[in-house]
Design goal:
The complex is a heterodimer of chains A (about 270) and B (about 140). The longest helix of chain A has about 40 residues. A 5-stranded antiparallel sheet of chain A has the order 8-1-2-9-10. In chain A, strands 3-4-5-6-7 form a 5-stranded antiparallel sheet. Chain A is about 45% helix and about 25% strand. Chain A starts with a helix and ends with a helix. Chain A contains 7 helices and 10 strands. Chain B is α+β, with helices and mostly antiparallel strands and about 140 residues long. Chain B is built from 4 helices and 5 strands, in the order ααβββααββ. In chain B, a hairpin with a 2-residue loop joins β4 and β5. In chain B, α3 runs antiparallel to α4. The longest helix of chain B has 18 residues. Classes of the chains: A alpha+beta (about 270), B alpha+beta (about 140). The interface between A and B is small, with 10 and 10 residues.
């Protein structure tokens, strides 16, 4: 039945679904994971790097994290070429705003403007939707630090912590459990590393598999800093995470042994 | 017509986004419209835009029909500027209270009424602050 109605993006199916949009979201299911965590004093975006081929030459500034303007950056999951078009549009939209209002574009307005474009491609022109989901992190004077997610349908939402791409549902449930709203940037980084390692394909997380960036703000200078962590810093974070894992494992072992001993003691009494 | 267009756009911004344009942004937006119109159908209007913002406090902007914009502590447009800018140069201090500022304005108005060839008996003084815009009703102004 679906076959009759999924050919064109501009038709609804009888159940009221837009199959092309859903198929676009499907394309992202298999894309490299991206996750974002909002902290009290900043935001963390972590992205899985898929281009780990040794022959690949080094890319300019960052592979998956795009700087949009002075105060906003985004990460993408999905078809890379579509993503490039969208990030271009976002950058232009941000500059158009500065040209008119002489102040940086508020984050939500920037996200909105792109989502309006994405929506257009689900309704007009007979063109296919963009197969890209984005995570945006930014700061503005109205709402402070913000994290947004948008998908091919043109829908967007503000999040405290979220994930897109491969294994995103597992990641989101982990975040739901472990995320604390009052966390600071370091705790957010630790959480991001923890969740990332569980969602990556390979068994071991390494600095060349993941890209981590942070957005913070220096209040006195009124300056927003968007930074991609160096390989050394990522290695350090992974090291910290692994140490923590070891510690927890040992504690679990001790706990288990203690329970065993208690059980034996109880049996002996009988 | 076209100026109410500008005003409605500022209001639309607030409805769309839930917060108003800051005075600086509103002045920049107006300035861009003035500049664009310059080559097609220029507005023949000079403006002073004053506003209050939670983040930056009170601010005053001088705009003219050519698309100039400058943030200023005090200013004047028209013939008044010949007579009043020097008064304000002398009397203005940073951190003036509202009463002191209004007194300075009254000094300027008095000077204009004395020296300008055209008789201008009535003036309106408007104050823009945290609570909004209000007019100062003043008997003293009528000569």
């Amino acid at each position: 039945m679906a076959k009759l109605y999924d050919g064109r993006t501009t038709i609804f199916s009888p159940e009221g679904r837009l199959y092309q949009v859903e198929y676009a979201m499907q394309a992202i299911e298999n894309a490299g994971t991206c996750l974002g965590v909002l902290a009290q004093d900043g935001i963390v975006l972590a992205a899985e790097k898929r281009n780990t081929n040794k022959l690949l030459d080094e890319v300019a500034h960052s592979e998956k994290i795009y700087r949009l303007n002075e105060t906003t950056a985004c990460s993408v999951a999905g078809i890379t070429s579509d993503a490039n078009v969208l990030t271009n549009y976002l950058r232009e939209a941000a500059q158009r705003y500065v040209l008119t209002y002489q102040e940086p574009m508020p984050v939500e307005q920037l996200v909105c403007s792109l989502c309006d474009l994405k929506q257009l491609y689900t309704q007009r022109g007979g063109k296919r939707p963009f197969g890209v989901s984005l995570l945006y992190m930014g700061w503005d004077k109205h709402y402070g630090f913000q994290l947004y997610q948008s998908d091919p349908s043109g829908n967007y939402g503000g999040w405290k912590a979220t994930c897109i791409g491969n294994n995103h549902s597992a990641a989101v449930s982990m975040l739901k459990q472990d995320y604390k709203e009052e966390c600071d940037l370091n705790e957010a980084l630790a959480l991001a590393v923890k969740v990332m390692s569980k969602t990556l394909d390979a068994t071991k997380m390494a600095p060349d598999r993941v890209e981590i960036s942070t957005l913070t703000r220096e209040k006195e200078k009124d300056k927003v800093k968007i930074r991609v962590l160096s390989e050394a810093e990522v290695k350090h974070l992974i090291g910290e995470y692994e140490k923590q894992q070891e510690k927890e494992k040992k504690e679990k072992e001790k706990e288990r042994e203690r329970k065993e001993r208690e059980k034996k003691a109880a049996q002996a009494k009988k | 017509n076209r100026s109410s267009d500008l005003q409605k756009n500022v209001q639309l911004y607030k409805i769309r986004n839930g917060y108003s344009l800051s005075p600086h942004a509103a002045a920049s937006f107006t300035r861009q419209n003035l500049a664009k119109a310059l080559r097609e159908g220029p507005y023949t209007v000079d403006m002073l835009i004053g506003g209050y913002d939670e983040h930056d406090g009170a601010s005053l902007y001088y705009l003219d029909y050519l698309g100039t914009m400058a943030k200023v502590p005090y200013t004047a447009h028209g013939y008044a500027s010949y007579m009043t800018l020097s008064i304000m140069d002398k009397n203005y201090k940073e951190g003036l209270s509202e009463t002191e500022a209004v007194d300075m304005i009254r000094m300027c108005i008095a000077e204009v009424q004395k020296r300008l060839i055209i008789n201008l008996p009535k003036f309106n003084i408007h104050v823009v602050d945290r609570e909004g815009v209000r007019t100062i009703d003043d008997e003293k102004m009528e000569t």
